[in-house]
């Protein structure tokens, strides 16, 4: 089962990532100024995976990626893949497990590493 992980960027904005069953990031959302907007979009996206569009692209260096589009608005961009088949596998995993994904909020965690 996949997971939505909400976290804070270094800039102070919030984002969510959809991670696969194996813990690998499949896509990352746009930046959100407010955490509640980030949470709301993650929850909304979870309910409409079947109806959203996945637009595939190829970079100038030959890598493949896709954008998640809902109602004409780009919500997230995937990581880069080496083949088009891997892109399709990422999309298939989202469609299969996205609706059942849980949302984890790590935005307020201040990790402290002690020497």
From TrEMBL:
SUPFAM superfamilies cross-referenced by the UniProt entry: YegP-like
Taxonomy, superkingdom: Bacteria
TM region(s), chain numbering: none
Domain DUF1508: 60-105
Pfam families per record: DUF1508
Entry-linked InterPro entries: DUF1508 (IPR010879), YegP-like_sf (IPR036913)
Protein name in the entry: DUF1508 domain-containing protein
Organism of provenance: Flavobacterium seoulense
